[in-house]
Amino acid sequence: MQSGCRRGRGLGWWHGHIRGYGYRMTAQREAVLEIMTKTREHLSAEDIYHQLHNLYPNIGLTTIYRTLELLVDTGLVYKFDFGDGRARYEISEGPDSPDHHHHLVCTCCGKITNYTDFIDKERKLLNETEMGLSKKFNFKITNHLIQFYGLCEKCNKDEK
Amino acid sequence: MQSGCRRGRGLGWWHGHIRGYGYRMTAQREAVLEIMTKTREHLSAEDIYHQLHNLYPNIGLTTIYRTLELLVDTGLVYKFDFGDGRARYEISEGPDSPDHHHHLVCTCCGKITNYTDFIDKERKLLNETEMGLSKKFNFKITNHLIQFYGLCEKCNKDEK
DNA sequence: ATATCTGCAAAGACTTTGCATGAGA
DNA sequence: TCTCATGCAAAGTCTTTGCAGATAT
Lengths: 160, 160
Description:
Number of domains of chain A: 2
Shape of chain A: globular
CATH topology of the largest domain in chain A: Arc Repressor Mutant, subunit A
Structural class of chain A: alpha+beta
Strand content of chain A: 15-25%
Helix content of chain A: 40-55%
Largest sheet of chain A: 3 strands, antiparallel
Oligomer: homodimer
Number of strands of chain A: 6
Distance between the termini of chain A: 48 Å
Radius of gyration of chain A: 18 Å
């Protein structure tokens, strides 16, 4: 997909990517990407808005939404729904990246935990499944989602 | 979970289930369950509302939402998010039921396809993964979600 | 009889749209 | 320069809440 080369040249490595899609690189887009790449959290649009508000007091929530949409469309960011009514965003590590992970979602407090364990086994099964399903349903599979739901350590204790 | 006995006795098989949770059985709840059990579609609250409107012209959308919440809480119905901004509901077939399935979601037209293929392999992997994750993160896993995203046959053709 | 449930209307939360101003290439 | 991006305000959508009247047990 990308070159993998992230050595700084003044511009973020994503600059070419954005431009390649015919979009302009702006300070706001730069800022959103900066935040996205520097966190392992699962930020909502408003989270990003608040974090940016210090640096860019005039940035609008609308711009965050529009930027995120652009980033999702160009494949730089994944959009998730963890069931709390607001979308969460995360910089995309492709399914073959060593950082590729899935999520544990606490249905009590909403805490999200990333895990990379079992990913190799999962990947193997997913590939088989994807191939089988593609053939059977003539479905061109581009992505998958795996999430586990349950109670995190804290909520599990509190319940007792 | 349930007895598995669904032979009619005047009352729906779910009657005892609802009552067991201390809820009352009402015509509206009966009606929602009737629809849920008779379809393989993935209905939104409004879908159900419209389907019921013929039989019960006075039923309110609010009641649908409240009933669905109740059914989800008592485990009779699953709630899904397929990314189109509205929740979808489906009668629950437990993870060990032969009808247990996962979904293929067309990101273009929104079509949902159920599949049961590979479920056995998936179940095996999921069980392993659940056990491993439970131990590692002290996370009490109660449920899982697997979805594939891509283009359905029709949308894939149209795109060319 | 009475605690629960329903339906209506209104409110709430997140997200998108319209439009004039501002900025990138 | 000229098209694209931004910010504000307003609108849109789905969902939840408040409350008086109706219903199940």
